[in-house]
């Protein structure tokens, strides 16, 4: 069997294209309607008006709407416009307003390259992406709440995926907070923040004190959103003393970064990274070198650095991306993960070294729940010929590419054999995908976090949808809608129906329990022990859920 390598690698990329790129219909719901009788009458489900869904913020009143009993607010500003003089600067407070501000539509997505965003028809179908206006006036958030009262419900703050480069708070239908808010009587918040070169260009080495925070302004935006939650969420029926942060892919890494930031201390009470985690930020020597390349690519001297604030945002991103490419070429074969536009370990906003290494440090009392999927790096969805590859062909492919990282080289065969032994029923395409989707980062993060007193829980999601002739498998992004009770809304991920809904019931129950008290136990899942380095306790999430002790340890440790 012959497989075109170029098509193979492109398909691998398409299989993880949901790093946060997704979409929604504005009033969609995954709520399952009750069976109707001939005597039933449909009742009104959407309410909006002069005296409906009005809440106070410290900056002024906002007006939302009520949909199916859940009050929604969209596009509430938590920071000022980040363009012009505010570019590369820490977030500023939004200006107050006198009239009631309409909060009925999503805020702008952060600046990002949107060209050909919908170019892959299958990815657009599966992830059902939602993108609209893009601008530097992007510091906006959305709120779902059961009621505007003083009940003090647990709060979820969702951090979108897309690495640190793409995405927005509502890019997938599965991100919607209506159903979890209703089911668990919680307040759900999602946010947009600065991304890519706009949010993470470290100019401190060439711009001096004025630009000392420039490498981390995107992360500081997220802290500002948490500060807004702390100051305002009680007016939306939420408890500022019980805030969980949760994110997937790049959003999972953001959860870890925020949990390590001193400025976020006391603003976070639970942490849930999915399919993406981090135990350190970028080395500042490398981030500053990239800042030098950006200035040079823009044709500016250090004395002219302020002119970077005047360049149109798309033009600036393209300049910065060219600078990054040149630096990568100059470095040669160095690990590309060492640099890029991402949070920087500046020792001020983000600590140097390994996160969570101080047993009594930042977030030491914050429990963590980490999850990844069996097949993060999907590769056969639109390539049926991949289903019939042999073990030898799989080993050969793994030499050159293994998931998000480079290939395994001469170690590919040994790693493949170790995974095949651990998963004897898996065929070659499945073994190769398991290797490419290995849990190395998950276990590293759980191990680091276990140094602190708060418990950490680990899950591994293996449920596979009956779509694309069963070739989707447990792909990157799939578990999000299960946690948020949205399996009947994110149909292009699950197919809908009772089977995914049953697992979603269990997973959303566990998440709600974790939000309430830092322990996922008490619902319908089996007893879920905290992770230990010795045993690697892992909850397997599938049609049948069970706890296993570090099921992929032998193969993973060979990578």
Identify the CATH class. Alpha Beta
- Rounded Rg: 23 Å
CATH architecture classification name: 3-Layer(aba) Sandwich
Strand order of the largest sheet: 1-4-5-7-9-8-10-11-14-17-18-19
What is the CATH superfamily label?
A: Alpha/Beta hydrolase fold, catalytic domain
Reported by name, the CATH topology is Rossmann fold
Which band does the percent of strand residues land in? 15-25%
Q: How many strand elements?
A: 19
SSE-based structural type: alpha/beta
The profile of the biggest β sheet is: 12 strands, mixed
Question: Overall pLDDT, averaged?
Answer: 91
Protein architecture, described:
This protein is α/β, with parallel strands linked by helices and 559 residues long. The chain has a single domain, classed as 3-Layer(aba) Sandwich (Rossmann fold), CATH 3.40.50.1820. Helices cover 30% and strands 15% of the residues. It has 17 helices and 19 strands. It has helices spanning 5-15, 121-127, 178-184, 196-200, 204-207, 217-232, 250-260, 284-297, 313-331, 391-400, 412-422, 428-436, 440-449, 480-483, 491-494, 498-517, 553-556, and strands spanning 46-47, 54-57, 60-63, 65-67, 70-77, 101-102, 140-145, 153-159, 187-191, 238-248, 270-274, 282-283, 344-345, 368-373, 401-402, 405-406, 456-461, 537-541, 546-549. The strands form four sheets. The protein has a twelve-stranded mixed beta sheet with strand order 1-4-5-7-9-8-10-11-14-17-18-19, with helices on both faces. Strands 2-3-6 form a three-stranded mixed beta sheet, with no helix packed on it. Strands 12-13 form a two-stranded parallel ribbon. Helix 7 (250-260) links the parallel strand 10 and strand 11 (270-274). The longest helix is centred in the last third of the chain and has 20 residues, at 498-517.
